[in-house]
Amino acid sequence: MVTLNENFYTLQCINCKAEFDEHTTCTKCLKCGCSLDVIYNYDFIKQRLNLYALKHSPISALKYLTFYPIIDLSKIITLNEGGTPLHHCKNLSKKYKLNNLFIKNEGANPTGVFKDRGTLVEITKAQEMGAKAVCFASTGNMAASVAAYCTQAKLPCYVLVPEGTPIGKLAQTLSYGARIIQVRGTYSQCSKLAEQMAKKHGFFLAGDYAFRLEGQKSQAYEIAEQLGWKAPDYLVCPVGVGTNISAIWKGFSELHKLDLIDKLPKIIAVQPDGCDVVVRAFNSKSKKLVEIEKPNTVCSAVAVSMPFDGMKVLKALKDSGGCGVSIPDEEVLAIEQTLAREEAIFVEPSGALPLAAVAKLSEKGFFKKDDTIVCVATGNGLKDPKSAVKIIPDPPTIDPELSEVDNYLKYKLYQIQSEGVKNRSKILWKKIPSEKDLKKIVHDEFGINLSKAVLKGTTDSIKKFETKGKKINKQDIQNIIEEQLDEYNQKEKHLKIIDFEVKTSKYKEAEASIKLSYGNKILIEQAKGVGAVDAIISALKKAIKGHDKLEIKLIDYNVEIFTGGVEAAVKVVMTAIDKNGNRIIAQATSPDVIVASVSAFEKCYNFLYHRK
User: Fold this and answer.
1) Which residues, including other chains, have CB under 8 Å from residue 396's CB and lie 6 or more apart?
2) What pLDDT was estimated at residue 137?
3) Domain span holding position 425
4) Residue of 194, 227, 246, 247 with fewest CB within 10 Å of its CB?
């Protein structure tokens, strides 16, 4: 008896062309280790295809079931994925002089990422094949997606992620009940470990394999349908493992093979500079991928040292007549903000890669004005909000007084939020400028006018920075201005730290001495603590004991570093509360984390003192 599977599809190695039954392997070739592809009997698909339903039913990933390797439709696990918007970028089209620029917003999927399409097919196949548990490696997006679908399927879910995976993705994954293991290594190392785990314990190995690709190709079907059953001239997509862009190319190829579209798009693959394995290979016309052992990019979703489906991507680029583009992280983060502000679409950094490539290529006159260009925005910005906040200034904090709102409007303090994202590492002077020159520099770079008090405070802070030997860049100036704006309305300091010294070692308690003014008193004290900051604050509290009526305590303490290297400036944000429950947040910036911490504590105290 002939089964549906035998009529319908088989799994074939993309390299040696060996064929396999899915119960033997559905991940990689057992002969040469390369990736597999699902090879269909398209005559059989034509017989099953309901063209009327295809062209008239609402768009969703489920409407394309005929094109998936699913045999038992009763096993389908779905969260109503797909049907995502194809957004015509009217503002960005003007900006880049392109009439037909579109964003396929995959962040509108159930878990906020394109992966849901592949997970629909993959977890359904796990159900069909009688899986007892699922395990896989992820850089974060797949973790959340597979965990959500496993919850629906009532399957235990084990996830291996590289240490440092964005917390937004991990929080989502944990909420779905997945069991996460963080690995001190790269995605490729996680992937190898997951493979060993699946083999030893009999788990279904999920990941960027053949079945996932089949679900993700539905992006191509939807784009063609949303364009009136036409392919775009260019399809621009980020590349991590390479499965998604390969899937999209396969989807368009299938529609063309079945005469549902009359041409194929050119594919443009985009990777960040710090992890551009495929782009390097394509641009050097190499048929071999060279691993990047330590990917270095803010685009965590595509930080893959050796793309498993890299050869599929190279073939798609060659067959489509496309190209590869690499983008620096700084440009990616700037474009992430551009897309949000011009089109109200908030994406994670990897999702901004395609638009960054379009911006770069349009400057070179690569596109024709009437070309139809579709950028695949792969994931929602809430997947990795920390990356966005790295370049977005903190808004100034004010007391609830109309005069302070008036100052905010008068000095155009909102401008820093739009101008602060550009050329962040730029050095703005060779020697410390005068207040007059600084006022002009700040206006030219950020578009804001500083008040006299804020200007003086900014100048003083700059001098302190340079005393520490720090070369000040635009990012540092932004942080200093933010700090000064945070306290521009503050009255005279009741507590002022004149100086401190601290001694610490690897095993002993830190020892600190401090000199401060409190009201009209000069106080000197010493204390010990578990670390330098603790010792200094303990000495401070000891000095003002008997005078202090606030008795403030720290309830949160965060340190942010904006650039690499031990000479990097840091921003400390502290939250403190007094004995009556009054709460305040203060920040301070310095090249020295101890100085920044002590300054932030001093501000917390003074804010609470004047507020009481």
Assistant:
1) 408, 413, 482, 485, 486, 488
2) 94
3) 402-486
4) 227
